Amino acid sequence: MMTRRSIEAVAIGASAGGVEAACILLDALPAGFAPALVLVLHLPPTRSTTLPQLFARHSALPVKEAEDKELLCGGTVYLAPPDYHLLIEPDKRFALSADEPHHFSRPSIDVLFDSAAYAYRDRLLAAVLTGASSDGAAGLATVRAMGGLAWVQDPADADTSIMPGAALAQAGADRVLSLADMAAALAKIEQPMHR
């Protein structure tokens, strides 16, 4: 059961197997999905990404790469650009950083989750999906400490179980879900009341 709160942003991190997992989640989201959705995938730094075009075919929402100083808008899917850390400032704008890789990754899931936790506090839902590192575990702990919700893909359901397993060991979770169940639960996030 979804906790009674208004979720303004959803941050999702994935690594190995993450493109396919993200497509499954995006396929489930309705056109009226209200929160901003921010996605960090571990990608080779030299790869020019065609992910916005790929994900757009699976999404009823607009999909774009996040830009520095861009204000987050609800109902939009944002992707971290290759070879940049993606942060969310307290004023709900993106910041791109070329700081050192974290857990051998840039963009880093931890960096996104940490900054989003402080920007959105209890209005954030963060999810760790399939992957082969421990990136995302420390950030998910920060999300929970700041009052946000933490979902983790069931390691037994993940293409690669290391990352969700590390997240559960370090941060725990409010819900542990198969990818199909997570997609269904995301689609049911309550829409804001019209005044």
Per-chain topology:
Elements: E1 9-14, H1 18-28, E2 36-41, H2 51-56, E3 63-65, E4 77-79, E5 85-88, E6 94-97, H3 109-120, E7 124-128, H4 137-145, E8 149-153, H5 162-170, E9 175-177, H6 179-187
Parallel strand pairs: 1-2, 1-7, 2-4, 3-4, 7-8, 8-9
Antiparallel strand pairs: 5-6
How many strands appear in the DSSP assignment? 9
Number of helices: 6
Largest sheet: 7 strands, parallel
* CATH C-level class: Alpha Beta
Strand arrangement, largest sheet? Answer: 3-4-2-1-7-8-9
Please tell me the overall pLDDT.
Answer: 92
Return residue spans where pLDDT drops below 50 for at least 5 consecutive residues: none
CATH fold category name: Rossmann fold
Dominant shape: globular
Class derived from helix and strand content = alpha/beta
* Helix residue percentage: 25-40%
The number of domains is: 1
Strand-residue proportion: 15-25%
Q: For the CA atoms, what is the radius of gyration?
A: 15 Å
